[in-house]
Design a protein that fits this description.
This protein folds into 2 domains: about 5-160, HUPs (Rossmann fold), CATH 3.40.50; about 175-265, Alpha-Beta Plaits (2-Layer Sandwich), CATH 3.30.70. By secondary structure, it is an alpha/beta fold. It has helices at about 5-15, 30-40, 55-70, 85-90, 95-110, 135-140, 145-150, 155-160, 190-205, 225-230, 235-245; strands spanning about 20-25, 45-50, 75-80, 115-120, 210-215, 215-220, 250. The chain is globular, with a radius of gyration of 19 Å. It contains 11 helices and 7 strands.
Length: about 260
């Protein structure tokens, strides 16, 4: 099926739901769902974004701007992840625990607004990755219009560009907990350390970057083509990451890759 056909199928899925709350992270996938939902349902579509220490404040602000550009009503809900002992212990199913809390909060808000269904930005590509959070969505009846239409990440970027959506070429993002090895307790101090380190690197032009925290060791992932530039600023990078709270600073020779912490599973 071509991209136009997939777009029509996603619109049909959304129309069939009557009204939807989009679990909106501010990323490219959920932004496209917001755009399609707004087209299909008008004011019967809302966007709902979760607030927690897992996401930097600048990402929340980007989500607000994107929702405004799309023209969809946006709501924000607090997600109490740090008070959930099971999540803080950082087991292999931490994404499931977090997503369950997020979707409950979104469902509660949606019900209060008279919205029938919750949808997310899941795509066809997500089926091939380790995503425990998907189980939480299935349990709560969350629909994935892009996935149901057979859209891949490449399709999402192409369609988002055609629609003129902000951030159509935005790098994939994941919550800050994904930078912490399974079994290492998640704390707000550690999340802040990681967030500060990544903020510094992004502000210096490294848009696709992860700082994985192995104790006090920072393992930096950037695109292989960016490695010479990073090494050229080695002393500054080391100094700033030590300010952020790390003792040792390393460069991952495999380079940037989403979900590298899942390699141990």
């Amino acid at each position: 099926m071509n991209l136009k056909g997939k777009e029509r199928m996603a619109l049909d899925v959304l129309k069939g739901l009557g009204s939807v709350a989009v679990a909106f992270s501010g990323g490219t996938d959920s932004a496209l769902v917001c755009s399609l939902a707004r087209e299909a349902l008008g004011d019967g579509a809302i966007a709902v974004t979760g607030r927690s220490p897992l996401f930097p404040a600048e990402e929340l602000e980007e989500a607000r701007r994107a929702a405004g550009a799309i023209g969809i009503r946006m709501f924000e809900v607090d997600v109490p992840v740090m008070s959930d002992e099971g999540f803080v212990a950082n087991p292999a199913d931490r994404c499931y625990r977090c997503k369950r809390l997020l979707l409950r909060a979104i469902s509660d808000l949606a019900g209060g607004q008279g919205i029938r269904s919750v949808v997310d930005g899941g795509t066809e590509d997500d089926l091939a990755d380790v995503r425990p959070g998907t189980r939480a969505g299935r349990e709560q009846g969350v629909r994935s219009p892009l996935q149901e239409a057979g859209m891949t990440k490449e399709d999402v970027r192409a369609l988002s560009k055609t629609r003129g959506l902000p951030g159509w070429d935005k790098p994939s993002a994941a919550c800050l907990a994904s930078r912490i090895p399974y079994g290492t307790p998640i704390t707000e101090e550690l999340l802040g350390r990681i967030g500060g380190a990544e903020r510094f690197l992004r502000s210096n032009g490294f848009s696709r970057v992860r700082v994985r925290a192995h104790g006090r060791i920072a393992r930096i992932e950037v695109e292989p083509g960016d490695m010479p530039r990073l090494l050229a600023r080695r002393e500054e990078v080391v100094r700033e990451l030590k300010k952020a709270g790390f003792i040792y600073v390393s460069l991952d020779m495999q380079g940037f890759r989403s979900g590298s912490m899942n390699e141990v599973l």
